[in-house]
Amino acid sequence: MNSRPFTALLIVPTGIGAALGGYAGDAIPIARAIASVCDRLITHPNVLNGAQLYWNAPNLYYVEGYGIDRFAAGTWGLQPVHQNRVGLILDRAIEPELRQRHLQAADAARATLGIHLTDFVLTDAPLGVELRNSPSGASWGTLSNPDSLLRAAETLIEKAGANAIAVVARFPDEDVDSPALQNYRHGSGVDPIAGAEAVISHLIVREFRVPCAHAPALAPLPLDPQLSPRAAAEELGYTFLPCVLVGLSRAPQFLADKNARSPDSIWAESVDAVIVPAEACGSSAVLSLSRSRIIAVEENVTRMQVPPEPLAIKATRVRSYLEAIGVLVAQRAGIQPEILRPDIYPLHCLS
Asked: What confidence tier does 196 reach under pLDDT thresholds 50, 70, 90?
């Protein structure tokens, strides 16, 4: 029996309109199912963040997207932890009442979940989030004052001893009547804020090499009786912060020194399989891990058109995540998944 832990990486890129994983938390059932057939499942906040809903499991590893890229490239490892000291950054642009709502959510996480939070920091200037869309329809964004974000993170790390950072930035209020928002709330379209959220967390992880995730501060939207179930998690209250605090509380720390590895640290060579939408295979992490078994899920359509074949990635194409789980079960059992089909090609002599 092979004692090496079976390790998979689940990726659903942010802000590309994924049919599954394009909403707050709607990929959590996928992650739970895949984690049940793996010893370790590494995934990112876009998969596990569900606003006030979340799911915590000991073999789920919550890793920010830039950190996953560095991990996949082999330059960083992951060190599992029992608990992090989570520091909270609040954007100075958040109105006083909305700020208080987020502080109450943080206190609730301390009192009801036992999460270890440090004191919080207000940025010394509004972060100035601006939202953008690419020609493909994917969302992204910019910050007017990124240095203010970095100064706040540095204060939490140096003065409060934080080793993980949660950020709440004030995002522009959405036009309730815009077709894009209506489409999104009714189950189609692209999350308009996800790309900008990734910019915020990438910046802190790149600069300080600590786990980070973001929760937007937004004014509540009016009730919509036709709301899609996939969008419903985002309408439950005033804050998206609880899932971020839960994820960061046990997010693995990053290791930059391979000589510092321990028996339970995780490095890229340990990854057995990568599960990704079939038309979104162009990410840095997928390209770096293309020698692992890449499982490309066709049912999870996105706004991207980057299949594995033009990139010379040898992928196992599957129709659904249910079929992907079957491939993982066979792989873990040491069975070539293709052998489970009725047609088996004979061996050929290599010339």
From this structure: confident
